[in-house]
Amino acid sequence: MWSRALLLAVCSILVLAQPTMAERRVALVIGNGSYPSAPLKNPVNDAKDMATALQRLGFEVVLLTNANQQQMDTSVREFGIKLRQGGAGLFYYAGHGLQVGGENYLVPVNANIQSESDVRFTCLPAGMILGKMEDARNDLNIIILDACRNNPFARSFRSAEQGLAKMDAPTGSIISYATAPGSVASDGTGRNGLFTQHLLKNMATPSLSVEEMFKRVRLSVVTDTHRKQVPWEASSLIGQFYFSGSPDTPAPKPVPVQVASLAPQAPPTTPDLKSRVAGRYTLAKEGIKISFVLNGEELSATAQGGSPGNTKATGVTDIKVKGNGLTFRLNYRAGIFGIGGDAFWDFSCLVSGGLESIPCYYKSDRGDDYEGILSRIPGPPQ
């Protein structure tokens, strides 16, 4: 009896001593360089090379380059939905970033910034990414911001703040900056920025914890710049993470990179995507069931159900499938017992991988934003 208890105790200690590495890995990588008034040479290369490196390290990667505000906003919302499925999440951004009033913003290529007040309406708040990670409550998150370059709009700003402001890392996450808060980093002279160059070099090192990896990157950048640029982290990690396998775990297998449809010509729809989407789904959050039916090459849908005493689904219109995206309008009767009048939600869903669950975000006719999952119901459409 005593020996059995001792054996169980030893096994428990050994299990707890093992470095943990989330099985599922998802990443959103954005690189913006084609700014009309202040172009940057490296961010697109940085993002593409980072996406490739992460793919080799087992991440499911979505890559955006030269993205506008709407594309960045949509991708972050979809990323947040993916994080809710658990595992490790990584957000990487290279491009212009700036701070206003102590808040950090990532600058889309189409941002029209004439004054400081324009920033919050034309740029992506970095806090939005942290918020999605906090909401997801997944295992672990890594945020990498190579965005501490000179502010090209500084002349029209009231304040003289440089670089990015310090942000508190949500529990279970680590934020890495190309340089210390309030400081600026150069764009680099080679294919990659100096910070990302050393990230790419060290991420693939086996058995290197994420904290040790960032420490090695900092040492290399500080050495190369003669202490002019000092990468910096804010961490609240409560577990271990290894990009390229822990001392006792082999490196993860590569997965394909998904390039978001941001080019002038959107990628063609997967030939069988409409037939794959066809089926029954439930939007549990709203108590609604949707059935997609393929008639020839046309995808139609019906909807039923709703929240008792609040909404009643009446139909689905404006269905479009492009690239890996599914959009449609879900019409419903609002108010108690559906007597509050006609209303709608416009859905934007990401169809990738399996179709057991499709992450969506949707906007009401009043402009309110929501997120949800279309969960597949076994059986043919009805």
Tell me the helix content: 10-25%
Ends: how far apart? Answer: 59 Å
Distinct helical segment count: 8
Number of β-strand runs: 18
What number of domains? 2
CA-atom Rg in angstroms: 23 Å
CATH topology of the largest domain: Rossmann fold
Poorly predicted segments: 5-22, 261-270
Please state the overall shape, judged from the principal axes of the Cα atoms: globular
Describe the structure.
The chain is of the alpha/beta class and 382 residues long. The chain folds into two domains: 20-259, Rossmann fold, CATH 3.40.50; 273-377, Lipocalin. Helices cover 24% and strands 31% of the residues. The chain is built from eight helices and 18 strands. It has helices spanning 2-17, 43-56, 69-83, 119-122, 126-136, 194-203, 210-224, 273-277, and strands at 25-31, 60-65, 88-94, 97-100, 103-106, 124-125, 140-146, 173-177, 232-235, 257-259, 279-283, 288-295, 298-305, 311-322, 325-334, 342-350, 357-364, 369-377. The strands form three sheets. It has an eight-stranded antiparallel β-sheet with strand order 13-12-11-18-17-16-15-14. A seven-stranded mixed β-sheet has the order 9-8-7-3-1-2-10, sandwiched between helices. A three-stranded antiparallel β-sheet has the order 4-5-6. Strand 16 and strand 17 form a beta hairpin. Helix 2 (43-56) packs parallel to helix 6 (194-203) and helix 3 runs parallel beside helix 5. The longest helix is centred in the N-terminal third of the chain and has 16 residues, at 2-17.
